[in-house]
From TrEMBL:
Lineage start: Eukaryota, Viridiplantae, Streptophyta, Embryophyta, Tracheophyta
Pfam families to which the protein is assigned, alphabetical: B3, zf-CW, zf_VAL1_N
Listed name of the protein: B3 domain-containing transcription repressor VAL2
GO molecular function, one term: zinc ion binding
Keywords on record: DNA-binding, Metal-binding, Nucleus, Transcription, Transcription regulation, Zinc, Zinc-finger
Amino acid sequence: MNGDEGVHERIVWGNGFDQMEERLEVEIWRVRDAVRSVRVNLVPSISLRLRAVFRSAYEQSTYCDTYHSNESGWRDCSSCGKRLHCGCIASKSLLELLDNGGIGCISCVRRSGLASTPTDEKINGFATRNNVTEVRSASVDNNMDADNVDVGRPLQSGNAEVNEQNSLLQSQRDDKNESVGKIKREQIVAAVGEVGSSSFSNFNHSPIGSSHFSKRYINKESVGARDLYDSLAQTCLSITLGAPGNTNLTLDHSGTIEGGEHSRAPPSLEQGQRSRQLMPKPPKMNSGIVHDATTKEMLPQIRVARPPVEGRGRNQLLPRYWPRITDQELQQISGDSNSTIVPLFEKVLSASDAGRIGRLVLPKACAEAYFPPISQPEGLPLKIQDVKGKDWVFQFRFWPNNNSRMYVLEGVTPCIQSMQLQAGDTVTFSRLDPEGKLVMGFRKASSCTTCSYSVLLQSMKGSTDLHINALSESFHAVDGDLSWRNIDRHGGRPNEGLALQPLLVPEKKRSRNIGSKSKRLLIDSEDALELKLTWEEAQDLLRPPPSAKPSIVMIEDHEFEEYEEPPVFGKKTIFTARSSGGQDQWAQCDNCSKWRRLPVDVLLPPKWSCIDNAWDPKRCVCSAAEELSPMDRENLLKLDRDLKKRRIMANQKLMHEPEPSGLDALATAAVLGEGRGDSGATCVATTTKHPRHRPGCTCIVCIQPPSGKGPKHKPTCTCTVCMTVKRRFKTLMMRKKKRQTEAEVAQRNPPGWGPKDEVEVDSAARGALLALDSSDAEGRQAIVLESGGQSNAVSIDKASEMNKAGKIDLNCHPDRDDQDAQAGGSDRMSMMSLLQVASLPLETYLKQNGLTSLAAPEPQASSTSQAQQQQQLLVVESEEKAPDESHLASAGGEHEITTPIATGGDEGSCRPDNAQTDPV
DNA sequence: ACTCTGCATGTTACA
DNA sequence: GTAACATGCAGAGTA
C-alpha cells in the first residue's frame, strides 16, 4: 500500500509522538502489572472472602483483639444500651463491632443475625472522597483525643468500612459482573480502613497522653485522605489483601464487665498494619477459601498475625514479626497443661541465620521486648524449649552495632538442624505462662502457589489500577478456583509440631527483592521475559487514536496519515494462514471469549465483542457458536504461544549476540528482497519479524533478513531496502526543512516555538534509526524492557559495531568526537559536522552530495556512503536526543526502556499492501 | 586448613 | 536520614 496506489499509509506520527512515548511508558507498567495480576489474580475473591474467614478466626481467638478506645474499654451496646467491656484473654465474647457502626453485645448481635446487620447508608456510602475523609478524620479524632471522645464513633467509622465490605461481599455474590467497580471501591475502603487501623493501633498502644502521635496520623490522614483516595484508586491489589484488619470482625471476647487486662490486649484493628505496609504478608489470604459455613472447621488452621500481646516496647514491634500462629498450634504447644501460650514473635530465617555459623539474628525490638534484658555483650544463656519438649540452651547476646545493638542467639545450629530448618523457614517464639518458659516453634517454608501469591502480592504494592482490576477480574473465575483448590489442599492439615502447613511463608528475602516499595520495579528474569514479550505485543496493539482524524500529508506523492494524538492500544488478534493461501485474523470476544474470524486488514479497538463483528453476520452475537472447534482453538492459541516463545528466544539471542547493524543489516536485507519466506514458517501467518506483518508485507521491517544473513548492499544498489532507506531519509530531511521554515517563523514569535517540534524530529530520526538499525527481525521490536541494564549492553554492542564500521561511537563523549574530528586523527565524522549536515537545508544537502533527487539518486552517487551518512546523521540525532530521554529510563527504575516505539505507526499498522512506503 | 568470634559494612525498611 | 538487619570479613583459636 502506498501513495501510488492511492491508499493512505497509516502512520502514527507527528505531534503525538512524544505523547505516545509517555503513554507507552505508562503502558509498560500496566502490562507488567497485568502480567503479575494475571498470575496472582486474587483481587476479587480473596478480599471478599477473607472477611468471613477473619470473622470466624476472631471468634475463635483466645486473645483479645478488641479495639480499646479508651482506658476503661467500656462501651454501650447500640441495641440494648447495656454497658459492655472489651474482654480479654480466656473468656467469651461480649461485644461486637457492628456493621453499621457502634457495638453490640453478643446477645443482641446474635438476635439480629450477623449477616442481616442493618446498614447505614450514610456510613455505607463511601461514594465520595469526602466521605472517606470525613469518616476517617472523625475516626481518628475520636480515637486519639481523649478529650474529644465520642465513644460510639470510632468504631462507627471503622465499621462503616467493614460494613461497606460486607455489603460488597453480598453484592459480589449477587452480581459478579459488577465486580470491577465494586472491587475498586472495596479496595479503597479497605485501605482507608487500614490506615485507620494504624491509628487505632497506635492509640491503643499509647497511653492517653500520646496525642502527639495521634496528631500525626490525624494530619496525615485527614489531609491526605483525598490523595489517598486517589492513590488507592490506582493501587488496589495489595491494598485489598493488605487490610485484613478491616474485615468484619466478630470480636468474641470475654470479660463482660470486667476491667483490666485490656492493656494486654492488642487491638483487632491493628491487624491491619500500618499504612505503609499496605501489603503485609497476607497470611489470611490463604484462608480465603473458607466461607462462613466451613469456617468453623478451618479455624484452628487460620494463620492470623497476632500482634504481640505484651513485652517491653511491643508497640514498636514490626508486623512482620507478629506471630502467625494458629490456635491449633497454640494448643499443641500448651498441650493439656493449664499453661497459657503467649505468642511472642516469629522470624523468617535468613541465610546467615540458617547457616553453619549458628547465629540467629534476633529482631532488636523482639529481643528487647521478650527476652531478658542484658547489659553485657556476652549476654546470658537462654533456655528455650522446642515443640518436642526438648530444651535448648542458646546464648542470648548482642553486639554493639552503630550505636545500637544487634541481638543474636548463638548456638542455634543444632536446634535448627534438628528441626531441619533452612533459610526461608520461620521460627516462632512463644512463652508459656505462667511458667514463663520460652518455646520455639517453626514453620517450614513452602513453594505452594498461595505462598507465591503472597510474595507476588507484595510486589503488587501500589502498582495497579482499574486496568489491572479488569484483568484480574477476568482471571478471577479461573484462577480463583485454582487458588481455592490449592488452599483446600492445605486446609486443616497440620504438620508436625508447630510446623503446621505454612499457609504463609513471608520469606523476607524474597519479598524484599520483589515486594518492597523500593524494589517495586524489580522483576525476576522470568517476569522480565514475560513482560518483554507482553510489551512487544503491546506494540502490535498500537492503533491510531480512535477519535482523532488524521491529517493527510503529501510527501513525494505519498499520502500519509498524520495524527496529532498518540496511538492507542488495540485488541490483540492472531493471524493464521489458510492452506489455500489466504489469511485469517482471529479475535476473541471480550464478553463470551469466543474467537471470531475477521478480515486480515481489520484493526480492532481495545474493546471488542461479538456484537462488533460486522464482518460475519452469523457470528455477531455472543450466543453464536464458535467457528473454531476446541482443537482448532487450542491449536490457534498454541501457535500463538509458540510464536511468543520464539520471539523471546530470538530476543535473548539478540541480546547476547552482536549483530550487524545499520547498513550491514540493510545490506543483508537485500537478499530478502525477493527471497523472503524465511524461517518462521508457521501456520500462524505472521512473519517471525513481527506479528502484524504478514507474508507479503514488504515494509522496511519485514524485508530485512535475519541477523547475519544476506549479502552486503553495493553502493549502486537500488533494491527495495536501499530505496526505502533513502526515502526515509528524504522524508526526514523534508521534515527538517519544514521545521526550519517554522523555526524562522517562530523566531519572530518565540513563545510559539517550543522544543516539542525538536523532539518530534528527533523521535522521527530515532524511529528511522530504529528501523535502519534493526537487522534482526525480533530485534526490531522497538521497545525492549529489560532488567539489569541489558538493554544498555545491547545498545553499546550495537554502537560498537557501528564504530567498527566507521560510524559514530555512541560511547564517546560528543566533545571528544568533535575534538577527534578537528584533530583529523579520526576517520569518524564529528558530531558537530554531522549536526551541521543535518541542519543543512535539503536542497543544500542534495547539492553537496551530488543528488538531484532523493527519490532518484544519481547513479554515480555512492549508495553506501549516502546511506552511511544518512545513518550517521540519524545516529547523531538520536544521540543528541538521548539525554532528553533519560526520563524514560529513569522512570523505570532498574528497567530501562531502551528505545521508545518509534516504529509504532509503522509496525503497528503495517499491512501486506503497504509495502515500500515510508512511515516516516 | 578450618572454625569461631567480633565487628564492619552495605542494603533495606521505616519514620 | 536513620535504624535495623543480613552478611562479609579479618583475626584469633583450634585441630
